[in-house]
Design a protein that fits this description.
The complex is a heterotetramer, with two copies of chain A and two copies of chain B. By secondary structure, chain A is an alpha/beta fold. Chain A is built from twelve helices and 14 strands. Chain B is α/β, with parallel strands linked by helices. The chains are: A alpha/beta, B alpha/beta. The structure holds thiamine diphosphate (2 copies) and magnesium ion (2 copies).
């Protein structure tokens, strides 16, 4: 019996990193076909310790330290999946997923279709992503849009420990390949977790209204949800009631939930760390504008990264959307 | 030309010295013994191999013909590589698993995949027309080298299952340059995975000769990764059979991976889209014609009187019938329902795909209605 | 002296493939540092014959047949550029660029910024792209959006022989890395080419209004420009005046030209072969809606690929936008 | 421990047999001759090498200290690898070009890159603080393996220029598994490019031991690609110098690429973010401490009386001063102007970047105004 199932642990506050660890552990307990793969995930427990202790408890055959080659990790995971396993691969940092881009885009995403449904790819690719931790180059990227353009993948991202715990298990249970983006700068944020069996997690393909409001909708995901909640709180003090939607899933995108919200509020600002240009904000703006054309009182605002490489960390505070940048966009939406 | 020797040294070409390779049957149809690869071939087995060689050559010819006539969009011919494919394919047990490129029609045949199913992707009605797990034969993979990693992963699964199964990863000489193939070597060696890497060095990667990819024989690549590699005469079906069988045993016995380089030749164009006259000389073709895999087996069988005229007539008839069946089945292949493209994108419900499907159905329905109206008018 | 400079060739009709060949030849004549690299580009002249005859005339040191490894092609091109060369790399087909995705995204795009301007990457990556030629899997992809999200790259695509001839030379002359998408199904379409020295090509970062109109703007690029021109002609017969913008450049995106057009027409439909989801249409819709919020009479229409893998070729006619699909979207824009 | 032999066989560890490697100076400071790598080292040269070893160790210690104190976000220590880096770095001519990973502070030193410039990326003020072409030392490259392909391409340029220049590509044991590194081997062999692949096998890739990457010594990888490879004692600055010099000569003379595996040890953590106690045992550290590259040179110099106390005192003083200068320069490093992030995205004008820059300037200006107003109030 895992710690998470222990009654006493029901509502103990845990970090996102720990919640993911507990979720992985439970998935491994529930299904012996679940194997973890990646660089330094064994003894070390991963550079963020998300797999801490799992090799010790489940052995080297199920928690596999791999040679240093991302295409190799994903490519061999394809073979394991074909053999009936459910590989959960860790990419050490966002900026190092690109050597595996070919396998993900041309194989993982397409094998179900290529085989006319005969072969499923129940694979999870975990990627710690985003900035804000003062890291060197390639350690603060937000490449989610680069995967969303490819059909066959599901792309999700939890913003908090509770979602982290459940979503990782749902991702592993999914017969579709799932790219699981983990907001690394939120790894150490805590929340109480009810890990009991009777908890009912929200479906993996649905967004959530995490703060109700009436005047404007903020849509965000992963690391920016907290930022938007803070912004909404600050706006509240200025008398503006802001609704915050945690998108949770990037592909598919739960436009229904956002459009429903915008039909009430009339205004939308989308926030992400990833570059604005060709980012999620564009897709959401296009779809919501299409659905809420006569309801929108201002064009959809987009707050995100600039059209520059992710800057050296001493500049990242300016690069990354923060409360002020979000509120600035909110102001502009009201000025229209 | 090669001469009969009792030793293991066979040069691939009389003029330019080639490294040793394993040969059990000379181009002239003479049997040679090899100390490491003893092989008993009964008359019946020889006939059976001959039959396979002839039939897959005929399947291949039909593929080319169907393409010429516009029934296929493309065909990748195996002409010249029949022995490498039948030899290695026949070496596999039913429980072994093969990961092909796009040219392994002969291996598919050995695995029991209906040749008609190979046509789907070349005709453009699907991207893979069989269930990989039914015959333990993966779908064709077009992105060069990708499948070698899949094979290693599959073999890692075999290890975890404690199963007595082998895995073969097919790839070409050109593919040997891809990062993925070398990573497959790394992973296989690191985990001691039961996988045979079977490289058909057909001397060309489209227009580029093998020397562009490697300045040493490809089988030697394996040494650098810490596992054995060897070269086999890829136009000798006996040698390919014996060597692959031994390699599969070796890997199944927990010794880790092994690389086989089958030294052969792409007698035809890269695909039906290619024009090899732009980049290679005819005399090379002549040289290799003399090493034809079917011809040498026929000579061997003739020397030994292993089959009578009736046998050959039967095989010819069988291959005519097979070709006719393939042709008929190809022509009868229906175009897929366009809406089926939404079918296998995700395993479960997906609101976006469902919405797009509905919209397209609606849109196409509009045309149907319009046509209907037209007819009614 | 090249054929193209020959006076008699001034306005001879040439195919796009030939125009590119002439442009490459001229660039190689003009600058001895220009080298071509790729699979089968030498003796064979490339599978589309775009480099036909160039190895014969410029030698193997300048027209380099490479081993079969796309990351190797782009990675070594980086080194050649660092050494002062101007490599022009050919990726054989759109679907085979992904092994090089890492080098393009993390090295080619970022070296100028990483070196604070000390190192330039004057590299061109030519990619035949798009469908419509009845090809097998991976030979009909439109991955342009996957590069546009990354800053540091310029992404352009000619739609016709004249642009092909000039744009390839401009791309080679650019000190920024340029991804040069060639609409493979238009390789064999002809147009008269004035290759004289006094011709004045349009800047590489500008779109072009290729057909004026008053009621609706169609924005397209590469292979879809011809489709849109045909649609505009058909619409004309129904009394609708449609303006067609050939975007030519995807990054940067010339939103000025499109917005100026939409400010006149009030309606916009964007057309591309690439999947709609997270595609160029989303970005253009978001930006144009932002700029022309009160002018737009209908939401921006998007016509493009579905959220499926590119289908087997017997279905591609339905998958690819054609005149009818474009007109259908036009109709919907007017119904609003 | 190792004993004096006149031959070339040196075992890396007394307990577990290691393959041969080239050693010219034992851990005890004894000089050994090697028939293939004769090396005359004058007293002055020995002192100069010693000085470099000590100074780069000090630079490294200062990096670690600055990180501990929050002045750097990260530091990747070269502790233990000084001989591999100084030996190979000093083997280069001024016109040769080096492609480092992120740990080659010692090579940077040999190339004449001011150590202060190395700090920029670790402090987060830039991603590379020097002009690669000024000292023929490329920027640090973090994506594992990428730079090896750049090195090969650069060497292809050298070939085209007909220049008498060499190129070194540095990489780690972990990197040997990456597709890019193996493709670099393929390209270098195919074009016979003048590049030395210098692999510092420091036994670890973060938490993974070299055995996870390869089951045979890494230098043997080269054979599979058709070029020579050898292992050198990476803690022996003489051997690293002699072997790298010979390899550069070899490549410059048109013989094509060569691989050197410098057998060494990462004495510290992977980076300051790492905690090696989680994955490796202390006795391994002890074993390697006995092979310390500086210690053995000091012993050798002491045996031969190659330097007096004053020399050592001077080097110590110099290294104190260097450390102080680095520290001061680090603290004085200004934070970059945030708007500078738009500066080097494109070489020419770019309307989108210009617009975003203007908008951000405007936005930041608003705060400045607000602050101003606040102060004025
Ligand atoms: C990653 C990738 N790059 C390029 C291609 C285009 N292409 C198809 S086959 C081929 C040559 C393959 O040569 P080889 O591996 O020797 O196999 P062969 O075709 O000779 O059987 C190339 C370059 C591809 N399919 N995949
Ligand atoms: C493509 C890629 N994947 C993962 C990483 C994360 N990472 C940084 S260093 C390292 C280990 C490198 O080991 P090695 O090549 O032996 O060099 P060393 O650090 O020991 O000098 C890893 C996995 C990376 N930088 N790039
Ligand atoms: Mg080949
Ligand atoms: Mg290492």
């Amino acid at each position: 019996m895992s710690a998470a199932r222990d009654d006493s642990a029901r509502t103990a506050p845990v970090t996102l990193a720990k919640a993911l660890n507990l979720g992985l552990r439970r998935a491994m307990e529930d299904d012996s076909k679940v194997v973890l793969m990646g660089e330094d995930i064994g003894r070390l427990g991963g550079v963020f310790r998300v797999t801490d202790g799992l090799q010790k408890d489940f052995g080297e055959a199920r928690v596999i330290d791999t040679p240093l080659a991302e295409s190799g990790v994903i490519g061999t995971a394809v073979g394991l999946a074909l053999r009936g396993y459910r590989p959960v691969c860790e990419i050490q940092f966002d900026g190092f997923v690109f050597p595996a881009f070919d396998q993900i885009t041309t194989q993982v995403a397409k094998l179900y279709a290529r085989s006319l449904g005969k072969v499923r790819m129940p694979m999870v690719i975990r990627i710690p992503y985003g900035g804000g931790i003062g890291a060197v180059e390639h350690h603060s990227e937000s490449p989610e849009a680069l995967f969303a353009h490819t059909a066959g993948l599901r792309i999700v991202t939890p913003s908090n420990p509770v979602d982290g715990y459940w979503m990782i298990q749902q991702a592993i249970a999914s017969d579709d390949p799932v790219i699981f983006f983990e907001p690394k700068r939120r790894y150490w944020e805590k929340a109480p977790l009810d890990a009991s069996d009777d908890a009912e997690p929200r479906p993996l393909d649905r967004a959530a209204v995490v703060r109700p409001g009436t005047d404007l909708t903020l849509a965000a995901y992963g690391p920016m949800v907290r930022t938007c909640l803070d912004a909404a709180k600050a706006a509240d003090e200025e008398g503006r009631s802001i609704e915050v939607v945690d998108l949770r899933t990037i592909s598919p995108l739960d436009v229904d939930t956002v459009a429903e919200s915008v039909n009430r509020t009339g205004r939308l600002v989308v926030v992400h760390e990833a570059p604005v240009f060709f980012g999620l904000g564009a897709e959401l703006a296009a779809q919501v504008t299409d659905r809420c054309f006569y309801r929108l009182e201002a064009p959809v605002g987009r707050v995100g990264g600039f059209h520059t490489p992710y800057p050296p960390s001493r500049m990242e505070e300016v690069y990354l959307p923060d409360l002020d940048r979000v509120l600035d966009a909110v102001d502009r939406a009201f000025e229209h | 030309m090669t001469t009969r020797t009792s030793g293991r040294t066979r040069r691939a070409s009389p003029s330019e010295p080639e490294p040793e390779f394993v040969q059990l049957l000379t181009p002239e149809g003479e049997r040679i013994d090899h100390p490491d690869y003893p092989l008993e071939v009964s008359a019946e087995q020889a006939r059976s191999l001959y039959r396979d060689l002839v039939l897959v050559r005929r399947i291949d010819a039909e593929g080319t013909a169907l393409q010429r006539q516009g029934e296929l969009g493309l065909w990748a011919s195996l002409l010249g590589q029949e022995a490498a494919q039948i030899g290695s394919g026949r070496a596999m047990r039913e429980t072994d698993f093969a990961f092909p490129t796009y040219r392994e029609h002969g291996v598919a045949w050995c695995r029991g995949v209906d040749p008609v199913n190979l046509l789907g992707m070349f005709r453009g009605v699907n991207n893979g027309g069989w269930d990989p797990r039914e015959k333990n034969f993966n779908l064709y993979t077009i992105v060069i080298g990708s499948q070698t990693l899949h094979a290693v992963g599959y073999a890692m699964g075999v290890q975890r299952d404690g199963a007595d199964e082998g895995v073969i990863a097919y790839f070409g000489d050109g593919a040997s340059s891809q990062g993925d193939v070398n990573e497959a070597f790394v992973f296989a060696a690191s985990y001691n995975a039961p996988v045979v890497f079977f490289c058909q060095n057909n001397q060309w990667a489209i227009s580029e000769p093998t020397e562009r990819q490697s300045r040493v024989p490809l089988y030697r690549r394996a040494q650098g990764f810490g596992f054995p590699g060897l070269r086999v005469d890829g136009n000798d079906v006996f040698a390919c059979l014996a060597v692959t069988r031994a390699a599969l045993d070796y890997t199944r016995n927990g010794n880790g991976p092994m690389l086989i380089e089958a030294f052969t030749y792409r007698m035809g164009a890269h695909t039906t889209s290619d024009d090899p006259t732009r980049y290679r000389a005819n005399d090379e073709l002549e040289l290799w014609r003399a090493r034809d895999p079917i011809l040498r087996l026929r000579r061997y069988m003739d020397h030994g009187g292993l089959a009578d005229e009736e046998f050959y007539a039967t095989v010819d008839k069988e291959s005519d019938e097979l070709a006719a069946r393939i042709r008929a089945a190809c022509l009868a292949m229906p175009d897929p329902d366009p809406l089926s493209m939404f079918e296998y994108v995700y395993t479960g419900p997906h609101h976006q795909v469902a919405a797009e499907r509905a919209a397209l159905a609606d849109y196409l329905g509009g045309f149907a209605d319009a046509e209907h109206a037209e007819v009614a008018r």
